[in-house]
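Feature request, filed as a ticket because there's no other form

It would be nice if the structure record came with a short human-readable summary line next to the tokens. Right now we just get the raw output. Example of a typical job, pasted below so the devs can see what we mean:
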Amino acid sequence: MAFSGVPFEFVRHQMKQSCFVPSFSSNLLQNNPVEPGSEDENILKWSAGSLFFLAMALFPEVQHKAQQELDRVIGDTQLPQFSDRERLPYINALVKEVLRWHPVVPMNVAHASSQDDVCEGYLIPKGSSILANIWAFTHDPNVYHDPMVFNPERFLATSTSPLPERDPHLLVFGFGRRACPGRTLADANVFLSVAQSLAVFDIAKPVRNGQVQDIPLKFLPGVLAILLHLSCPFSREVWHTGG
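Raw output as currently delivered:
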């Protein structure tokens, strides 16, 4: 929980001291005060995107490119807003790659077949529960080049690759009549969390006794992709770059 809990508690502490830099989490806390340890607090923590923080710690070169775009387009005197989204193609590509790399819901919510069906020679009886393997879809080598590699540029058109790879938004929020009804709001929250976090933080692997620590990619079993507990000092984990 450190990748979501520790940065969140840092923002809460700074707000109590009236010396915080505006951010996604501070905006939420100002408009929606929550009790420590409550379910609402956990929802706010995780909406900031633990998988994004993990990716930035593991792939600093991607973080640097995203921050360069923010500095060039937004500058350092204000936070990026949702209205800036169209001007931030690399940030948009980064959001897509975070969603593709490790979908928050690797196995989609179960659907039920309304009638007997046959798929590739297999009978699917009426009423069968069917779970779509979202992780397999977003790591299909026939769709995504080097799918195990974290590479936001796969979603940017270039002179050598004029057609970006398939947008994972088509998959990760569900599809058909059972698509997530809050997908538009969720996507907007992810964008703001990514853009505003990168505007004010440098994110790095933890350091203990002068040694950079590796971060294992281990997840709790279950429907949601939840990282195992990561315990490390906040100042070693996320560096605040504000004045």
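Something like this underneath would help us a lot:
The first strand starts at residue 111 and ends at 112.
The chain has one domain: 2-105+135-240.
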